[in-house]
Design a protein that fits this description.
Bound molecules: NADPH dihydro-nicotinamide-adenine-dinucleotide phosphate
Structural class: alpha/beta
Distance between the termini: 71 Å
Number of helices: 12
Strand content: 25-35%
CATH class of the largest domain: Alpha Beta
CATH architecture of the largest domain: 3-Layer(bba) Sandwich
Helix content: 25-40%
Shape: globular
Largest sheet: 7 strands, mixed
Number of strands: 23
Length: about 450
């Protein structure tokens, strides 16, 4: 067995796999160590299975309006069918990831990797030592649970993707991406869903109009929201879990899910043997080129807690390989990264929120609120929201926010003119496509409101 490599990657997720393949393409001898399944959080227990569940849950809305288009639908949902088909697709993707690594000439070790020095990694199960000119840590992050009594009775997104049967009711704690995505998944699949969040409205940090619009969308889907409240403890009561809340009340639920953020996977990696520094949040501290304080050790993706998004991990992995093995030093630009929340309604954003932009000089704000055309034959009250924020002088587009069907697809394309520093006049040169929702973004005429000297006018 070959034990000498130019690069040993620990973690076969999005960042690690990309780095391994690109480095191998530059001629490096590369090994990747993965203790679970190749593909990592995104493919195995994150973005991909989650999005398949999102599709499943959205049929509920379609069935609701189908009669207005003349369809009679007698719909029944079968959880085991979805689960089996999802598992089949994940297995296919995992095999494709492994095949891609094989094809690139990367050696895959299905083991746990532990750093034993600046240039050595131990395969824990096999008990073999590998030597590496460079080590890349790409071990991702895992759900973090509040330290409360009975927390072991709750689940996280990991288990939510493998439930044997759907619970009759679920309480989800958190107000971020995972919480709202899974709340709308469970609600769409017929589970009585309650969201509990310590803040005053979900998606802290997003534009206020998006937060408000999403909250209204959760309401119309029958999702109960309990704000400014925490879960204090869980205890088993028969087949249910009784939850005690910080407002002094208690209630039983079929399941409780924690969606209270994620923490970097650094435990048991042996980083202390090489003297790798962590930051205050417990993430691996790296420079713009993903290099740690130990020159031969790099880290990419969620374990560095820069921006916890798959495409960022991929970009960081690629940039690392270009820098170290391709002779092209490349730093990843983490500014102006768009993101999407695949809840129902969907939310996607890029650039500054209105509140942030208002502190950056005089701005104009354009907002359109309307019923998506798909809903106009029905009584469905959902509103789509499109919002553009521009600098008053010169019209530079500072932020773009969309809530409603196709929001993520629209913002993905809006990211191009945003990245090019496009002005409103540039956006307006695009001829509208009719009838679409996205045409609103290129046909705004007068600002809905303005900020002058920091004051809304
Ligand atoms: P987030 O950081 O988005 O949200 C965590 C939520 O939990 C926040 O509302 C936070 O409250 C709350 N919270 C944190 N600690 C506690 C606590 N001790 N008690 C009560 N509430 C608490 O994390 P997620 O787990 O939702 O997602 C993790 C990351 O994964 C995200 O940052 C995102 O980048 C990524 N992700 C991306 C997706 C996408 O692109 N569609 C989908 C899923 C995940 P507060 O707001 O007050 O801090």
């Amino acid at each position: 067995m070959d034990t000498k490599f130019d690069l040993v990657v620990i973690g076969g997720g999005s960042g690690g796999v990309r780095a391994a393949r690109i480095a191998a393409g530059y001629g490096a001898r590369v090994a990747i160590i993965e203790e679970y399944r190749v593909g990592g959080t995104c493919v195995i227990r994150g973005c991909v299975p989650k999005k398949l569940f999102v599709y499943a849950s959205r049929f509920a809305d379609l069935f609701e309006i189908a009669p207005t288009f003349g369809w009679t639908v007698d719909a029944h949902f079968d959880w085991p069918t979805l689960m089996a088909n999802k598992d089949k697709e994940i297995a296919r993707l995992e095999a494709a990831y492994s095949a891609g690594l094989d094809k690139a000439g990367v050696t895959i070790f299905r083991d746990r990797g532990e750093v034993t020095g600046p240039n050595s990694v131990r395969l824990v199960k096999a008990g073999t030592d590998l030597t590496a000119k460079t080590i890349l840590i790409a071990t991702g992050a895992r759900p973090s649970l509040p330290q409360i009594p009975g927390r072991e009775l709750g689940i996280t997104s990991n288990e939510a993707l493998h439930l044997e049967r759907l619970p009759h009711s679920i309480l989800i704690e958190g107000g971020g991406y995972v919480a709202v995505e899974f709340a709308t998944i469970f609600a769409g699949l017929g589970v009585n869903t309650t969201l509990i969040y310590r803040g005053n409205r979900v998606l802290r940090g997003f534009d206020e109009d998006m937060r408000e619009g999403l909250d209204a969308g959760l309401e119309t889907r029958g999702i109960r929201r309990i704000y400014e409240t925490n879960v204090l403890s869980l205890k088993k009561t028969g087949s249910d879990i009784t939850v005690a809340f910080s407002d002094g009340t208690e209630a039983p639920f079929g399941a409780v899910m924690f969606a209270t953020g994620r923490v970097p996977n650094v435990k048991g990696l042996g980083l202390e043997h090489a003297g790798v520094h962590l930051d205050a949040a417990g993430a691996i501290a790296v420079d713009a080129y993903s290099q740690t304080n130990v020159p031969s050790i790099y880290a990419v993706g969620d374990v560095t807690n820069r921006v916890q998004l798959t495409p960022i991990a991929i970009r960081e992995g690629h940039a690392f390989a270009d820098t170290v093995f391709g002779g092209k030093p490349t730093a990843v630009d983490h500014s102006s990264v768009g993101s999407a929340v695949f809840a129902e309604p969907e939310v996607a954003s890029i650039g500054l929120t209105e509140a942030e932009a208002a502190t950056h000089g005089d701005i104009d704000v354009y907002i359109a609120r309307f019923r998506p055309m798909m809903n106009t034959l029905s009584l469905k009250s959902d509103r789509m929201i499109m919002k553009l924020i521009t600098r008053a002088e010169g019209g530079l587009v500072l932020g773009c926010h969309v809530l409603g069907p196709g929001a993520a697809e629209i913002i993905q394309m809006a990211a191009i003119p945003m990245g090019m520093g496009g002005t409103k006049a540039d956006w307006d040169r695009a001829v509208a496509m009719h009838p679409t929702a996205a045409e609103e973004l290129v046909t705004f005429r007068t600002p809905t409101h303005r900020y002058r000297g920091g004051q809304r006018v």
